[in-house]
Design brief:
It is built from 3 helices and 7 strands, in the order ββββαβββαα. It is α+β, with helices and mostly antiparallel strands and 116 residues long. The chain has a 4-stranded mixed beta sheet with strand order 4-1-6-5, sandwiched between helices. Strand 5 and strand 6 form a beta hairpin. The longest helix is centred in the middle third of the chain and has 11 residues, at 46-56.
């Protein structure tokens, strides 16, 4: 993986894969959760997994890389609803979710990435 610093966007698909977890972005729209990565990101260490869990609000497991700074993760437990909502494909554009959401949602798995 290449080194990167700054926000890492976390895509959390619903268990049935029909929705994305998003939170209000303050502009009457929705944004995907992000976590700050202030060290070169070379893979999912235990510390980064824990930080991602804190950013989401529940423990998570990395699923696959969606884009250079976008990873899909899955909750390892129930996600508390406070501050988050599940948005469907048709709602992404209508609700003003950030532009990456729709592309990230429909991206194919990166088969070259060994991370489970």
């Amino acid at each position: 993986m290449t080194d990167r610093r700054g926000p890492l966007r976390l895509v959390v698909p619903s268990p049935d894969g029909t929705r994305l977890l998003a939170r209000p972005n303050g502009l009457a729209g929705w944004a995907l959760p992000t976590m700050a990565v202030d060290v070169p990101f070379e893979g999912w260490s235990d510390e980064l997994v824990a930080r991602a869990g804190r950013a989401i609000g529940t423990p998570v497991r990395p699923l696959r890389r969606v884009d250079e700074d976008v990873w899909a993760v899955e909750p390892a437990d129930r996600i508390r609803a406070a501050g988050n909502t599940w948005i469907g494909a048709a709602e992404v554009e209508r609700l003003g979710a950030d532009a990456d959401a729709a592309r990230a949602w429909f991206a194919e798995p990166d088969v070259a990435d060994p991370t489970p």
